[in-house]
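The methods section describes the discrete structure representation at length, but only in general terms. An entry of this sort, consisting of the sequence and the corresponding backbone structure tokens, reads as follows:
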Amino acid sequence: MSDTLRDPTTLGDLLRVASADDFDRWQDQIRRTGGCSDPIHLTGWSLTRDKTTGETLQHYTTEHEPGGRLRIACGNRRASRCPSCAWTYAGDTYHLIRAGLAGDDRRDIPATVRDHPRVFATLTAPTFGPVHNRPDCGTCRCGSPHSIDDPVLGTALDPATYDYVAAVLFNNYAGDLWQRFSNRLRREIAARAGLTQRGFADVARLSYGKVAEFQKRGAIHFHAVIRLDGSDGPVTPPPPWANVDLLADAIRAAATHAYTSVSVPAVDGQPVRTFRWGQQLDVRPVKAFGDGSDITEQAVASYVAKYATKAAENTGTLDRRIGELAELDRHGVPDHARRLITACRRLDATYPDRRLWAWAHMLGFRGHFSTKSRRYSTTLGELRQARADFRAAQERDALCLADHEPETVLVLSDWQYAGHGHTPGESALAATIARDLQLNRDTAREALADLPDLDNVGEWHEARVA
């Protein structure tokens, strides 16, 4: 028996739900949400009529649903909050990234995009002080080796000298630093091609898709797929001078250029700080699947999708906004993360426009975790709309509405928010449904060829943090 079911309150509620007359319908609702751990509850109705004849084609109301409510998925991207919805978000991100690498005819991205120069680049944070790590020699600066799951990894060797203020300010300005980098990268590419910036824009376009990842020390860094296209994006070939070596060289130059920096002014006793990327810069060509390389289209897309559903939880911080510092004690936040959060609180009044306390749970980082340039590939919105259209078509077939032209059908509806989440017993049952669905997915995945894993890339950078 699981620990959850040892609670008599939870067990009693579970039996109540399972013995209800409408239990089968409740299970059906939860399966339709994918086993969502915090579903949204709606009450209301919808009415479908034929505009021409006035005939009622379909009428739905939540009055006859379990509890009088319809449950829909919460859609949260964080795996720590809802693994089921995060799985869907990761899948969308995978297809978004892979479409920009391998093409997708359904979204007007030709397969010839595979012939464009593209690399997988990782830009890291600078050092803020020595931390416990796992270097190649196997021994940390503290004199002891650490296992891969040692909780001390990433924490400061000497908290008294570690620059926690600089760490949270770097996270806060990381988005600005990326913008400086991408602007400089266009200049570096143009210079290597013997072009002006305007001349570069006439013949080529830089596209990217990136994801943010927190290192164990609490510093943000970016993984990015960077690609060179023709002037109209992926549908046009790049100019003859464009190649992987030129792109990689330009990335290294842009990342280390003096222009690629962000300065934080001196305020209330805080010194001027200038932030640049860390010394650990990794740029690798992306190869096609099956050529023996670890950096393949599928592997890169999988790696980016994996981190699109994570935040700062691996540092021990909370996965929601913090109301007061006392919450850190209640939730047992470890010392290193606590010091970073406390630095956000202390600096909030010094830099009010940066909203450091509002983003303290993210250790100061306030950007989007997954972003892309306009012409890289499709969008998450388009992927979600395609899924919604597919489900709507299924519903029309099930209701025998396929013979009616869409313009002749009128849909009226009224929906009200009625809460969210599960009772303790429902939560235990929903978790079981989610595990069953995940088992089905894993079984289907095992039927496919094993894909290379890029986890070693993250470990490689962690081991070299100063």
Remarks:
- Residues 4-78+386-457 form one domain.
- Residues 164-192 form the longest helix (29 residues).
- The chain has two domains: 4-78+386-457, 83-160+169-316+368-380.
